[in-house]
Design brief:
It is a single chain. The chain is α/β, with parallel strands linked by helices. It folds into 2 domains: 123 residues, 2-Layer Sandwich (Enolase-like, domain 1); 267 residues, TIM Barrel (Alpha-Beta Barrel). 40% of the residues lie in helices and 16% in strands. The protein contains 13 helices and 13 strands. Helix 3 crosses helix 4. The radius of gyration is 21 Å and the shape is globular. It binds 2-phosphoglyceric acid and magnesium ion. The site of 2-phosphoglyceric acid (2PG) has 14 residues, from loops.
């Protein structure tokens, strides 16, 4: 039985050049594994706490307190443990923190260890990380799951908090739903992405990119973004609605002022029901099959209304709404809001709780989508997590920028090496 013999954390940097936590776990048989923690910009108010130093250095964003919490407070708790026991170790970390939102120790400290432990356990067993997650799902929930390669949502046009253009909707994504395998998924998305670049450039728009690698032009309306994407799909000889669907992440809390939804680019102030009509108009006109955070996280009446109106024909995803938290998800299921959940492990802070939330979604016929954060690193754990837990969908940015592409490249390798694991359709 291998034992954790060393835990060492340092401060590293994410894709925005902002400090984040990295942790190395070493076992007494010499095996070692690393993790790096991602970080959001458009965050839900009920996410677990990301501990920042709030001192002058790094504009207050240093994470040296979180690093020191790992090295000095959490390390002694996990030394000597077998990394196969993810549930037991995560529970020790959760109990030590003792708060609902991990605000004593910081979710970034706890997650860094939780992730590194799963990596170390997979390496020690000499199995792929996705195989280890498949086993963990069974061990933690008692239920079995079928692994699959997730269908991605590629965020090819950025707005909102992820770019400095004028577009209100945060993410315009393409879903290559007609592709026969993951290699074709990547071919189509790459071709559409580059055709979109050509279209933007030849129409006099900027082709510079936002935080998630999608283009970030200034446009007259949000709808114009959809039209440009459709043009890019067609110029790739693909059919909108048949080969490629469109998905949106409104991140609506970012433009809700407590009463109205303020669309700056269109000079519109819409009430909740007017904004729902606006979105319904887009869904009726374009092949939009998924909308995330269509409504502000506290506008529960708005969520109920949109779920009644669009829930049958559209995937309605709760991100800031559910923050990967099982209790909040259960409340939402009772309230009949949304029909899918975005899964980000740093919103909740451990691998175990992430798995439990997905299990809850599965039991309630909610779809789960594994997601990156806008501040990412080269850590590719989410690719293996999506495969091993068979969730069927992933969003991890544009087919551009290495912190995004690293996850897609990992999925290409999984497809190449595990011919029995098929693309989710
Ligand atoms: C989102 C995410 C990822 P952030 O809103 O879904 O795309 O953004 O990490 O900034 O919360
Ligand atoms: Mg979101």
């Amino acid at each position: 039985m291998p034992k954790i013999s060393e835990v060492n954390a340092i401060q590293v940097f994410d894709s925005r050049g902002i400090p984040t936590v990295s942790c190395k776990i070493t076992l007494d048989n010499g095996i070692s594994a690393f993790s790096m923690v991602p970080s959001g910009a458009s965050t839900g108010s009920k996410e677990a706490l990301e501990l920042r130093d709030n001192e002058e250095n790094y504009h207050g964003k240093g994470v040296l307190k979180a690093v020191s919490n790992i090295n000095n407070k959490l390390a002694p708790l996990v030394l000597g443990k077998d990394p196969i026991n993810q549930f037991e170790i995560d529970q020790i970390l959760i109990d030590y923190d003792g708060t609902d939102d991990k605000s004593k120790i910081g979710a970034n400290s706890i997650l860094a260890i939780s992730l590194a432990i799963s990596q170390a356990a997979a390496k020690d067993q000499n199995i792929y990380l996705h195989e280890h997650f498949l086993n963990l799902y069974k061990n933690i929930t008692g239920d079995s799951i079928k692994p699959s390669i997730p269908m991605p949502m590629f965020n090819i046009l950025n707005g909102g908090e992820h770019a400095d253009n004028n577009i209100d909707i945060q993410e315009f994504m393409i879903i290559p739903k007609g592709a026969k395998n993951f290699s074709e998924v990547m071919k189509w998305s790459s071709e559409i992405y580059h055709n979109l670049k050509n279209i933007l450039q030849s129409s006099g728009f900027s082709s510079s990119v936002g935080d998630e690698g999608g283009f970030a032009p200034n446009l007259k309306t949000n709808e114009e973004a959809i039209k440009l994407i459709l043009e890019a799909i067609e110029s790739s000889n693909l059919k909108p609605g048949i080969d490629i669907n469109i998905a949106l992440d409104c991140a609506a809390s970012e433009f809700f002022d407590g009463k109205n939804y303020i669309l700056r680019s269109e000079n519109k102030e819409l009430s909740s029901s007017e904004f729902i009509n606006y979105l319904e108009g887009l869904v009726n006109k374009y092949p939009i099959s998924s909308i995330e955070d269509a409504i502000d996280e506290n506008d529960i009446d708005g969520w109920k209304l949109i779920t009644e109106k669009l829930g049958e024909k559209c995937q309605l995803v709760g991100d800031d709404l559910f923050v990967t938290n099982e209790k909040i998800l259960i409340k939402g299921i009772h309230e009949k809001i949304a029909n899918s959940i975005l899964i980000k492990f740093n919103q909740v802070g451990t691998i175990t709780e992430t798995i439990q939330t997905i299990h809850c979604a599965n039991n309630n016929k909610f779809e789960s989508i594994i997601s990156h954060r806008s501040g990412e690193t080269e850590d590719t754990t989410i690719a293996d997590l999506a495969v091993g837990l068979g969730v069927g969908q992933i969003k991890t940015g544009a087919p551009c920028r290495s912190e995004r592409i690293a996850k897609y490249n990992r999925l290409l390798w999984i497809e190449n090496e595990s011919s029995n694991i098929l693309l989710n359709e």
